[in-house]
Amino acid sequence: MLDRITASLSSLAPAEQRVGKLVLADPRSFARLPVRELAERAHVSKPTVVRFCRSMGYDGLADFKLKLAGSVSEGVPFIHRSVDADDKTGDVLVKVVDNAVAAFLQYRNAASTVALERAAEAIAATWKTGRRIEFYGVGNSGIVAQDAQHKFFRLGVTSIATSDGHMQVMSATLLGPGDCLVIVSNSGRTRDLMDAADIARKNGATTIAITASGSPLASTCQIHLAADHPEGYDRYSPMVSRLMHLLIIDVLATCVALRIGSPLQPILQQMKENLRAKRYA
């Protein structure tokens, strides 16, 4: 992105060139500063800052800063570097956190809002008709499935979560039209999960996969929420894929809550009162 700005400078108006040079001089600051301060630093008007962003092919300043933040994050020193034996605690902290942040930004910039909307609508529709919502996962993905059940339950959306392969296949057999199955898998190649997805889909249930693009599970399910972060087992690698899956569940739960809307309010209020009474009894 910065190389493209450098190559385009000579074709811009002088005022826009000053904005471009400001980006190149300190891209991190540009990504976080408000338009007023950016204009002051470049000695231009605020509309000129916006025009520069549009001349680079972006919708405006917000879109430009979003992409810039992702580009800069992927260029930080410790991204995709393994932890070495002589690393100090501070080095480990930066490497682990920066790897996770870079993965989240890559997901944010590549995620399909259309797929997220379809998944949220399917889950909300299942809730409104009183049908079954289930979450499946194995290993670390099983932990995500349990977390998903917890998050949705706190919204008043009852569901089932299981990480046992036999239970998944049996439970999927009981699903039918109007039901919704969400399957979490990093590789998308676990046999039991693929079998469960195939059974549920053939029975008429809506199947949603949170998994890697191009995996068998992604092609088996009707809705695919791409989560592309392969774990490297030849060196130390933070479990970023699980964090990404949890992030996707958070986004999905929030979208579902917004679709359900006002009917959730009395449920959440009663739940809060009951928990408070239990906590302070």
UniProtKB/TrEMBL annotation:
One of its GO terms (molecular function) is DNA binding. PROSITE patterns: HTH_LACI_1, HTH_RPIR, SIS. This is RpiR family carbohydrate utilization transcriptional regulator. Pfam families: HTH_6, SIS. SUPFAM superfamilies: Homeodomain-like, SIS domain. Residues 123-262 form the SIS domain. Residues 1-75 form the HTH rpiR-type domain. Coiled coil: none annotated. It comes from Acidovorax soli. Keywords: DNA-binding, Glycolysis, Transcription, Transcription regulation. GO terms for biological process: glycolytic process.
